[in-house]
Amino acid sequence: MPAAEVPVSTGLVRRLLTEQHPDLAGLDIQVLANGWDNLVCRLGDAYLVRLPRRALAAQLVVNEQRWLPGLAERLPLRIPAPVRTGQPGHGYPWSWSVVPYLPGDIAASTPPADPGDAALALGGFLTALHTPAPVDAPANPARGIPLAGRTTGVMTQLPHLDDPAERAAALRVWERAVAAPEWDGPPMWLHADLHPANILVDHGRVSAVIDFGDITAGDPATDLAVAWMILPASRREDFRRAYGRADDGTWARARGWALALALVFLTHSADNPLMAGIGRRTLDAVLEQ
Q: Which residues form the Aminoglycoside phosphotransferase domain (predicted)?
Protein backbone atom coordinates (compact mmCIF):
# COMPACT_ATOMS: atom_id res chain seq x y z
CA MET A 1 0.00 0.00 0.00
CA PRO A 2 1.39 3.45 -0.85
CA ALA A 3 2.63 5.50 2.06
CA ALA A 4 0.58 8.49 3.16
CA GLU A 5 1.96 11.71 1.69
CA VAL A 6 0.77 13.71 4.70
CA PRO A 7 0.17 12.66 8.32
CA VAL A 8 -3.49 11.75 8.92
CA SER A 9 -4.97 10.75 12.27
CA THR A 10 -8.06 10.95 14.43
CA GLY A 11 -6.43 13.90 16.15
CA LEU A 12 -6.26 15.77 12.85
CA VAL A 13 -9.90 14.90 12.15
CA ARG A 14 -10.88 16.31 15.56
CA ARG A 15 -8.95 19.55 14.99
CA LEU A 16 -10.44 20.08 11.53
CA LEU A 17 -13.96 19.45 12.77
CA THR A 18 -13.50 21.76 15.74
CA GLU A 19 -12.42 24.55 13.44
CA GLN A 20 -14.82 24.02 10.53
CA HIS A 21 -17.80 21.98 11.79
CA PRO A 22 -17.86 22.50 15.55
CA ASP A 23 -21.33 20.99 15.93
CA LEU A 24 -19.83 17.61 14.93
CA ALA A 25 -16.57 17.91 16.84
CA GLY A 26 -17.90 16.30 20.02
CA LEU A 27 -18.88 13.04 18.34
CA ASP A 28 -16.84 9.88 18.82
CA ILE A 29 -14.15 9.35 16.16
CA GLN A 30 -12.79 5.90 15.33
CA VAL A 31 -10.63 4.75 12.43
CA LEU A 32 -12.63 2.52 10.10
CA ALA A 33 -10.06 2.12 7.31
CA ASN A 34 -6.68 3.56 6.42
CA GLY A 35 -6.63 2.63 2.76
CA TRP A 36 -4.64 3.36 -0.37
CA ASP A 37 -6.29 6.73 -0.91
CA ASN A 38 -8.15 7.85 2.20
CA LEU A 39 -8.28 7.72 5.95
CA VAL A 40 -11.91 6.84 6.74
CA CYS A 41 -13.22 7.39 10.27
CA ARG A 42 -16.58 6.72 11.89
CA LEU A 43 -17.99 9.94 13.24
CA GLY A 44 -20.67 9.13 15.78
CA ASP A 45 -23.41 6.81 14.57
CA ALA A 46 -24.48 8.65 11.43
CA TYR A 47 -21.37 9.83 9.60
CA LEU A 48 -17.98 9.00 8.14
CA VAL A 49 -15.08 11.38 7.58
CA ARG A 50 -12.92 10.86 4.47
CA LEU A 51 -9.50 12.49 4.42
CA PRO A 52 -7.29 11.94 1.35
CA ARG A 53 -3.83 10.70 2.27
CA ARG A 54 -2.34 11.14 -1.22
CA ALA A 55 -2.49 14.00 -3.73
CA LEU A 56 -3.94 11.67 -6.35
CA ALA A 57 -6.93 10.96 -4.12
CA ALA A 58 -7.48 14.62 -3.26
CA GLN A 59 -8.90 15.42 -6.70
CA LEU A 60 -11.16 12.36 -6.48
CA VAL A 61 -12.70 13.71 -3.28
CA VAL A 62 -13.30 17.05 -5.00
CA ASN A 63 -15.07 15.20 -7.83
CA GLU A 64 -17.31 13.43 -5.34
CA GLN A 65 -18.12 16.70 -3.59
CA ARG A 66 -19.12 18.34 -6.84
CA TRP A 67 -21.12 15.61 -8.53
CA LEU A 68 -22.52 13.10 -6.03
CA PRO A 69 -25.15 15.26 -4.32
CA GLY A 70 -26.94 15.84 -7.64
CA LEU A 71 -26.66 12.22 -8.73
CA ALA A 72 -27.92 10.92 -5.38
CA GLU A 73 -31.28 12.62 -5.88
CA ARG A 74 -32.22 10.35 -8.79
CA LEU A 75 -30.59 7.03 -7.92
CA PRO A 76 -32.61 4.13 -6.45
CA LEU A 77 -29.78 2.97 -4.16
CA ARG A 78 -28.02 5.08 -1.57
CA ILE A 79 -24.60 6.54 -2.33
CA PRO A 80 -22.18 8.39 -0.01
CA ALA A 81 -22.91 11.91 -1.23
CA PRO A 82 -21.07 14.39 1.03
CA VAL A 83 -23.24 16.18 3.57
CA ARG A 84 -20.42 18.49 4.73
CA THR A 85 -17.22 19.57 3.03
CA GLY A 86 -13.97 20.56 4.65
CA GLN A 87 -11.09 22.80 3.62
CA PRO A 88 -7.33 22.61 4.21
CA GLY A 89 -6.21 23.45 7.70
CA HIS A 90 -3.78 22.65 10.53
CA GLY A 91 -1.10 21.80 7.99
CA TYR A 92 -3.39 19.45 6.06
CA PRO A 93 -3.39 20.56 2.39
CA TRP A 94 -6.58 19.17 0.79
CA SER A 95 -10.37 19.21 0.81
CA TRP A 96 -12.12 16.48 2.81
CA SER A 97 -15.67 15.26 3.31
CA VAL A 98 -18.23 14.19 5.87
CA VAL A 99 -20.52 11.59 4.31
CA PRO A 100 -23.42 9.54 5.67
CA TYR A 101 -22.64 6.21 7.26
CA LEU A 102 -24.36 3.59 5.11
CA PRO A 103 -25.11 0.35 6.97
CA GLY A 104 -24.29 -3.02 5.50
CA ASP A 105 -21.42 -5.27 4.56
CA ILE A 106 -19.57 -5.31 1.27
CA ALA A 107 -20.93 -7.86 -1.19
CA ALA A 108 -17.43 -9.32 -1.57
CA SER A 109 -17.70 -10.74 1.95
CA THR A 110 -21.50 -10.95 2.35
CA PRO A 111 -23.13 -11.76 -1.01
CA PRO A 112 -26.79 -10.86 -1.58
CA ALA A 113 -29.18 -13.51 -0.31
CA ASP A 114 -31.19 -13.51 -3.54
CA PRO A 115 -29.11 -13.09 -6.74
CA GLY A 116 -32.27 -12.44 -8.74
CA ASP A 117 -33.19 -9.53 -6.51
CA ALA A 118 -29.59 -8.24 -6.75
CA ALA A 119 -29.76 -8.42 -10.55
CA LEU A 120 -32.86 -6.24 -10.59
CA ALA A 121 -31.45 -3.76 -8.06
CA LEU A 122 -28.14 -3.30 -9.85
CA GLY A 123 -29.73 -3.19 -13.30
CA GLY A 124 -32.14 -0.50 -12.13
CA PHE A 125 -29.37 1.44 -10.44
CA LEU A 126 -27.29 1.55 -13.62
CA THR A 127 -30.29 2.47 -15.74
CA ALA A 128 -30.76 5.53 -13.53
CA LEU A 129 -27.04 6.38 -13.39
CA HIS A 130 -26.26 5.98 -17.09
CA THR A 131 -27.48 9.29 -18.44
CA PRO A 132 -25.55 11.69 -20.68
CA ALA A 133 -22.89 13.48 -18.66
CA PRO A 134 -21.95 17.14 -19.02
CA VAL A 135 -18.84 18.10 -20.94
CA ASP A 136 -16.99 18.93 -17.73
CA ALA A 137 -17.55 15.52 -16.14
CA PRO A 138 -14.32 14.13 -14.64
CA ALA A 139 -11.95 12.52 -17.13
CA ASN A 140 -10.52 9.07 -16.43
CA PRO A 141 -7.75 7.74 -18.69
CA ALA A 142 -8.44 4.08 -17.85
CA ARG A 143 -12.21 3.70 -17.38
CA GLY A 144 -15.04 4.40 -19.80
CA ILE A 145 -12.59 4.54 -22.70
CA PRO A 146 -12.85 2.45 -25.89
CA LEU A 147 -12.13 -1.13 -24.87
CA ALA A 148 -9.18 -1.41 -27.26
CA GLY A 149 -7.41 1.11 -25.07
CA ARG A 150 -7.04 -1.63 -22.45
CA THR A 151 -5.31 -4.06 -24.82
CA THR A 152 -1.75 -3.29 -23.71
CA GLY A 153 -2.63 -3.95 -20.09
CA VAL A 154 -4.49 -7.16 -20.90
CA MET A 155 -1.61 -8.48 -22.99
CA THR A 156 0.83 -7.64 -20.19
CA GLN A 157 -1.28 -9.34 -17.54
CA LEU A 158 -2.33 -12.49 -19.40
CA PRO A 159 1.08 -14.17 -18.85
CA HIS A 160 0.41 -14.02 -15.10
CA LEU A 161 -2.19 -16.77 -15.59
CA ASP A 162 -0.38 -20.04 -14.94
CA ASP A 163 -2.68 -22.32 -16.93
CA PRO A 164 -1.95 -22.19 -20.72
CA ALA A 165 -5.50 -23.30 -21.54
CA GLU A 166 -6.89 -20.53 -19.35
CA ARG A 167 -4.64 -17.96 -21.03
CA ALA A 168 -5.80 -19.10 -24.46
CA ALA A 169 -9.46 -18.97 -23.45
CA ALA A 170 -9.04 -15.50 -21.99
CA LEU A 171 -7.34 -14.29 -25.15
CA ARG A 172 -10.25 -15.55 -27.25
CA VAL A 173 -12.72 -13.70 -25.03
CA TRP A 174 -10.67 -10.53 -25.33
CA GLU A 175 -10.40 -10.73 -29.10
CA ARG A 176 -14.17 -11.14 -29.44
CA ALA A 177 -14.81 -8.25 -27.07
CA VAL A 178 -12.54 -5.75 -28.84
CA ALA A 179 -14.06 -6.80 -32.18
CA ALA A 180 -17.50 -5.65 -30.99
CA PRO A 181 -18.74 -2.26 -32.25
CA GLU A 182 -17.49 0.66 -30.18
CA TRP A 183 -19.86 2.78 -28.12
CA ASP A 184 -21.18 5.50 -30.42
CA GLY A 185 -23.56 7.24 -28.03
CA PRO A 186 -22.92 10.24 -25.78
CA PRO A 187 -20.54 9.80 -22.84
CA MET A 188 -22.67 8.45 -20.00
CA TRP A 189 -22.19 8.95 -16.28
CA LEU A 190 -20.24 5.97 -14.90
CA HIS A 191 -19.34 4.74 -11.45
CA ALA A 192 -16.29 3.21 -13.18
CA ASP A 193 -15.19 1.00 -10.27
CA LEU A 194 -18.31 -1.09 -9.68
CA HIS A 195 -17.28 -4.38 -8.10
CA PRO A 196 -18.42 -6.38 -5.06
CA ALA A 197 -16.20 -4.46 -2.63
CA ASN A 198 -18.02 -1.25 -3.60
CA ILE A 199 -21.54 -2.65 -3.20
CA LEU A 200 -23.18 -2.86 0.23
CA VAL A 201 -25.60 -5.57 1.31
CA ASP A 202 -27.89 -4.95 4.28
CA HIS A 203 -30.25 -7.63 5.59
CA GLY A 204 -29.50 -9.74 2.52
CA ARG A 205 -30.32 -7.09 -0.09
CA VAL A 206 -28.20 -4.75 -2.16
CA SER A 207 -28.61 -1.45 -0.32
CA ALA A 208 -25.95 1.01 -1.47
CA VAL A 209 -23.09 1.67 -3.87
CA ILE A 210 -19.96 3.30 -2.47
CA ASP A 211 -16.57 4.69 -3.53
CA PHE A 212 -17.20 6.93 -6.52
CA GLY A 213 -13.58 8.07 -6.65
CA ASP A 214 -13.23 6.94 -10.28
CA ILE A 215 -16.46 8.64 -11.41
CA THR A 216 -16.25 9.57 -15.08
CA ALA A 217 -18.19 9.54 -18.34
CA GLY A 218 -17.94 7.17 -21.27
CA ASP A 219 -18.95 3.70 -22.45
CA PRO A 220 -21.57 2.18 -20.12
CA ALA A 221 -20.11 -1.28 -20.75
CA THR A 222 -17.48 -0.39 -18.14
CA ASP A 223 -20.07 -0.59 -15.35
CA LEU A 224 -22.04 -3.48 -16.85
CA ALA A 225 -19.01 -5.69 -16.20
CA VAL A 226 -20.40 -6.04 -12.66
CA ALA A 227 -22.74 -8.74 -14.01
CA TRP A 228 -19.78 -11.15 -14.16
CA MET A 229 -18.42 -10.00 -10.80
CA ILE A 230 -21.39 -10.55 -8.54
CA LEU A 231 -24.08 -12.58 -10.34
CA PRO A 232 -24.32 -16.25 -11.29
CA ALA A 233 -24.68 -17.00 -14.97
CA SER A 234 -28.36 -17.82 -14.50
CA ARG A 235 -29.10 -14.24 -13.37
CA ARG A 236 -27.07 -12.17 -15.83
CA GLU A 237 -29.90 -12.01 -18.34
CA ASP A 238 -32.20 -10.78 -15.54
CA PHE A 239 -29.68 -7.98 -14.95
CA ARG A 240 -29.49 -7.22 -18.67
CA ARG A 241 -33.27 -7.02 -18.95
CA ALA A 242 -33.51 -4.81 -15.87
CA TYR A 243 -30.93 -2.49 -17.38
CA GLY A 244 -32.83 -2.50 -20.64
CA ARG A 245 -30.29 -0.82 -22.94
CA ALA A 246 -27.46 -3.29 -23.50
CA ASP A 247 -27.37 -4.37 -27.13
CA ASP A 248 -25.17 -7.29 -28.17
CA GLY A 249 -22.15 -5.08 -28.81
CA THR A 250 -22.42 -3.41 -25.42
CA TRP A 251 -22.84 -6.78 -23.72
CA ALA A 252 -19.76 -8.17 -25.49
CA ARG A 253 -17.71 -5.15 -24.42
CA ALA A 254 -18.99 -5.53 -20.86
CA ARG A 255 -17.63 -9.07 -20.79
CA GLY A 256 -14.33 -7.72 -22.07
CA TRP A 257 -14.26 -5.11 -19.31
CA ALA A 258 -14.92 -7.85 -16.76
CA LEU A 259 -11.93 -9.77 -18.12
CA ALA A 260 -9.68 -6.71 -18.11
CA LEU A 261 -10.59 -5.84 -14.52
CA ALA A 262 -10.25 -9.44 -13.34
CA LEU A 263 -6.70 -9.49 -14.68
CA VAL A 264 -5.89 -6.22 -12.93
CA PHE A 265 -7.18 -7.56 -9.61
CA LEU A 266 -5.28 -10.83 -9.99
CA THR A 267 -2.04 -9.16 -11.03
CA HIS A 268 -1.95 -6.41 -8.41
CA SER A 269 -3.58 -7.93 -5.32
CA ALA A 270 -0.93 -10.24 -3.92
CA ASP A 271 -1.25 -8.40 -0.58
CA ASN A 272 -5.05 -8.09 -0.77
CA PRO A 273 -6.84 -11.45 -0.62
CA LEU A 274 -10.25 -9.79 -0.90
CA MET A 275 -9.51 -8.19 -4.27
CA ALA A 276 -7.62 -11.24 -5.48
CA GLY A 277 -10.70 -13.31 -4.72
CA ILE A 278 -12.89 -10.93 -6.71
CA GLY A 279 -10.47 -11.24 -9.60
CA ARG A 280 -10.45 -15.03 -9.49
CA ARG A 281 -14.22 -15.36 -9.33
CA THR A 282 -14.70 -12.81 -12.10
CA LEU A 283 -12.23 -14.55 -14.38
CA ASP A 284 -13.95 -17.88 -13.79
CA ALA A 285 -17.32 -16.31 -14.60
CA VAL A 286 -16.02 -14.69 -17.80
CA LEU A 287 -14.48 -17.93 -19.04
CA GLU A 288 -17.41 -20.17 -18.16
CA GLN A 289 -19.78 -18.38 -20.55
A: 28-257
